[in-house]
Write a structure and sequence with these properties.
The chain is of the alpha/beta class. The chain has one domain (2-208): Vaccinia Virus protein VP39 (Rossmann fold), CATH 3.40.50.150. 41% of the residues lie in helices and 21% in strands. The chain contains eight helices and seven strands, in the order H-H-H-E-H-E-H-E-H-E-H-E-H-E-E. The chain has a seven-stranded mixed sheet with strand order 3-2-1-4-5-7-6, with helices on one face. Helix 5 (100-109) links the parallel strand 2 (86-91) and strand 3. The longest helix has 19 residues, at 2-20.
């Protein structure tokens, strides 16, 4: 029942944003994943919503932002976004379609009055210079296996105690990155508690001890 409610909430957000930005096909893809998995469907949007309800992260970092659907869905779960202290969004934004301006447009469409910090550039270069700690970190950028592992390694130092690193697209319906996650988990098994769910594109998470 909970998964159904979460999926309905997420789909409603995606429908609103699809109307604002018809060129984005993610809503259509999301429907396909949802129909395939049925009531068991679970992805990083579900995880983020639950994390907000249970833990209310105050400092959020995303690598791989595109049009901002992930951050929009996550923020829509807060009772009051003024609880959030910092949001950092990192993407190269070089596909000629997505941009920080579209992210801002989507945030406005859901009446999410926040002012993220935008880092425009390659995460492999930008994230090692980023300062601060974050209690929610999404790694969803370059899906090349070497680059994805590099992003995961680069955010370890930025994750606060009790915070979580989330990794997307690990299943065959995503980008088949489960092996990357397993390497990362083996390297850091004494620092984090690891888990994952493959009922969708595949979502993995690691909570820092």
């Amino acid at each position: 029942m909970l998964n159904r409610q979460l999926t309905a909430h997420i789909l409603n957000n995606l429908r609103i944003l699809k109307a604002k930005n018809p060129g984005d096909t993610y809503y259509d893809e999301y429907l396909k994943h949802s129909e395939r998995e049925g009531i068991d469907f679970f992805d990083q949007y579900h995880f983020a919503t639950l994390r907000v309800v249970l833990h209310k992260p105050r400092r959020i970092l995303e690598i791989g932002v595109r049009t901002g659907l992930s951050i929009c869905n996550m923020l829509s779960a807060y009772r009051d976004v003024r609880e959030i202290e910092r949001i950092v969004l990192c993407d190269i934004w070089n596909d000629g379609f997505a941009s920080p301006e579209i992210v801002k447009m989507n945030l406005k469409a859901l009446n999410l009055q926040v002012k993220p910090e935008f880092i425009i550039g390659d995460s492999k270069i930008e994230i090692p210079t980023l300062e601060g700690e974050f209690d929610y970190i999404l790694v969803d950028g370059d899906h090349d296996k070497i680059a994805a592992l590099n992003d995961l390694e680069n955010v370890v130092r930025l994750c606060t105690k009790g915070g979580v690193i989330v990794f997307d697209d690990i299943s065959p319906y995503g980008c088949n990155l489960l092996d990357v996650w397993e390497v990362f988990a083996e390297r850091h098994k004494d620092e984090f508690i690891f888990d994952y769910n493959l009922k969708g594109k595949g979502t993995a998470w690691a909570e820092k001890l």
